Each structure stands twice: as structure tokens, then as C-alpha cells.
Amino acid sequence: MFDSDHNALQVVSLFSGCGGLDYGFARTGFNIRAAFDNDAHAVSCYNLNHSSIAKQQVIDNAWMLETPADVIVAGPPCQGFSTGGGYKENDPRNSLLLATCELVVESKAKLAVIENVAALTNKRNQDYLQQAIQTLTEGGYSCSVQVYCAADFGVAQRRKRTVIFARFGKAPFRCPTPRRSHAPTVESAFHNMSSSIQAHNPKFPANGSKHEVIAKRIGIGQKLCNVRGGEASVPTWDIPEWFGHASKHEKKILTTIRSLRRRNRKRNFGDADPVSFLEISAEIPEITQNQLALLIDRGYMRKYNSLYDLRDTFNGKYRRLDPDDVSPTVDTRFGDIQLFLHPSENRGLTVREAARLQGFPDDFIFPEREKEAFRLIGNAVPPPMSIQIAKACRELLA
């Protein structure tokens, strides 16, 4: 899929994944000379779609002896920095951001593009970002840190990513603003989807199964959620077909606890706390502890010592996509029906639907193992975004 032009600016890709970031550079006149990743599935997928240049190996400086580069592009692992990954400060993969910057400095490449999660710029991760910038600056690079939203680049999702641009030379620079375009909707991204397209194999849950019963009760733009009110949240007690009948009085108890647990805070972390019987009875004077015990037995509540809380406190599952809007972030778990639902059918998303929402063309081939395919797609830079980033880089090197 990638054509080679050895007279073009030479690019080396580190932590290349399946090649979403590389896609844009290849499409805008750069030559991808080498790509490296330590994941066998990523390397295999990369080589199916680009010329077979990707190698599976631990990222070190050996490649620089034989592969000089004008541009280095890199997507070091981001799980420890992300909100979805739980801000794992001691995740050993966090060190790979700094290692990438050290490799850039050693290479003396004209330009480097390092992509990571938007949360890299958060206060909790600022030490890592500052160390990275310091390493590049002390190595002779000027840096610009940008946070981009994929929807601004014609991608049908609200994916935000941090991009570090590092240009060799002390002169400060203003990073060109990539050309933005209107984001397509989920419906338009899924247009003309057919079973003949690779990796599009819709799977419907069994009749009467938990997934089917719940999916039938989730409307467009809604999610299964007990801890938030409003029309977008469908609580378990409103799906008696699976979770059991709850009386009007029991629903009042549950919605009261839903409100109290966020209003009456006891800790300085998290967004809610269990509540006491005294707090509940102040809102519902007629309540009895026996009524609470029954709700506990039926799986709607749980008790912590003398405090009460809702049992299912996740902030949203079975999120049904809105066909007239962009998608939430396509992550590595996007194919899990418990997390995301097709906008009009009672099923999860296919690999190709996830790829469409990321902006991958239909001729981009993904592994047959769906778990690996979703992981590669969820970790990738959307191709329409990478094209505009590559164009911006060409301006910086002009």
C-alpha cells in the first residue's frame, strides 16, 4: 500500500503499531524507510498493508546505525498516562516516552513527531511530559506540544491526542495548524457497509440473553447507568425483564441514594460515597432498614459496614452510538457489546465499523482474530488525522 521513493524525506517509525500514523506520511510524499514494534500482531498487520518493512524488535538504538532518518514518528505506549488506564504512575511502559526522546536526540533527525494520549498534558503526568521536553531541548531541539481532536480532521469520533513536534535547531517555531474539516457522523461513516467488506461480521446476541434484553431497552445516545440521572441514563431498575421488578417506592429509594452519594461527600477523591441510614431517612422518613435489606438481597444495593450504596456503580455500559453525532473514542475494547452498541441494531460493533470510525479505508486489512484487530485499531492514529499532521510537518521542513 505504501510506495517507496528514496528521493523523498526518509521516515523511521518507532512503536509503529498497525501504521495509522505512518499512513499519513506515506500518503503525503514521505518515504517510510523502516518501522519497528515489539508486538508481532502489529508488525504482521503493518506488513500486510504497507511494504514489508516493519520488524518486530525491542526499540533501541541499533536501527540508527543502518537507517538514518530525516523524520522520526513514534507512538510509545500510553496506558499508564491515560484516564482509561487509571493513571498508573509506576507503569514501566511510561519510561518509553523518555526513551523515545533520547533516541530522537541520538539520531539527530530533522524532525520528530511523538503521539500519545491527551492526558499526557494533565497535571498528574506533567513530570513525564516535562522530562521529555527537557531531553529534547537539551539535545538541540525546539518543541511544540499540541492537543488535537480527531473530529476536527474529518474523523467520526471525539478522540483527543497529544502530539509533540520536535524540530532540530534552537530557533523556536510555530507549529502549522493542520487543515481542519467537518466531522462525518456515525451514520455517514457506516454508509454502504456490506458483508463483503473484510472484517465486517455482525454478531447478534442470543435471543433472551442478557445482552439482548438490555440492548433492547437502550435508546439512541443512551447507556446503562445507575449513578447518573437524566434521559441518557437507563438504570438497571428500569429493566425488570433482566434485573427484576422494583416498585415505585423502591425506585424512590434507589434514586434518592443515587443523589445522596454524590451530594454528601466524605472522601476527597472519587466522585461519590456510600451513605448512612440517617441520611436516607432524612429524605424518606418512612423508610425501614428491612426495605434496604431486601434491595441488597435482590442485587440493587450493597452495604459497607453501616453505610449503603448502589451495587452497580459503573458510569455507563451498553452505550448506543448516535447515528447523527460522532462516536466516542474508539478504544481497544470497542467491540465489546457490554460497552458499545450499534446505533440501530441490538449488537456490538464490528472490526470494520471501528475501522471506519477511525478513518481507515476499507482495503486496509486487519487480523482475523477480532480481539487483536480491535486492539490495533484502538491504539492507532486515525489516518485522516495523520495525513494533516504529515502535511504540517512538510511545512516545517520546507
Write the CATH homologous superfamily of the domain at 10-183 and 383-397. Vaccinia Virus protein VP39
Number of strands: 14
**Envelope shape:** elongated
Task: Compute the separation of the termini in Å.
Answer: 26 Å
Describe the structure.
With 398 residues, this protein is an alpha/beta fold. Among the domains are: 189 residues, Vaccinia Virus protein VP39 (Rossmann fold), CATH 3.40.50.150; 85 residues, Arc Repressor Mutant, subunit A (Orthogonal Bundle). The protein is 31% helix and 16% strand. The protein contains 13 helices and 14 strands. The strands form four sheets. Strands 3-2-1-4-5-7-6 form a seven-stranded mixed beta sheet, sandwiched between helices. It has a three-stranded antiparallel beta sheet with strand order 10-12-11. Strands 8-9 form a two-stranded parallel ribbon. The longest helix is centred in the middle third of the chain and has 16 residues. It is elongated, with a radius of gyration of 24 Å. The two termini are 26 Å apart. The model has no long low-confidence stretch (mean pLDDT 91). Keywords: Methyltransferase, Restriction system, S-adenosyl-L-methionine, Transferase. It catalyses: a 2'-deoxycytidine in DNA + S-adenosyl-L-methionine = a 5-methyl-2'-deoxycytidine in DNA + S-adenosyl-L-homocysteine + H(+). This is Cytosine-specific methyltransferase. Its EC number is 2.1.1.37.
Summarize the structure.
Belongs to the class I-like SAM-binding methyltransferase superfamily. C5-methyltransferase family. The chain has 398 residues and is of the alpha/beta class. Among the domains are: 10-183 and 383-397, Rossmann fold; 226-310, Orthogonal Bundle (Arc Repressor Mutant, subunit A), CATH 1.10.10.
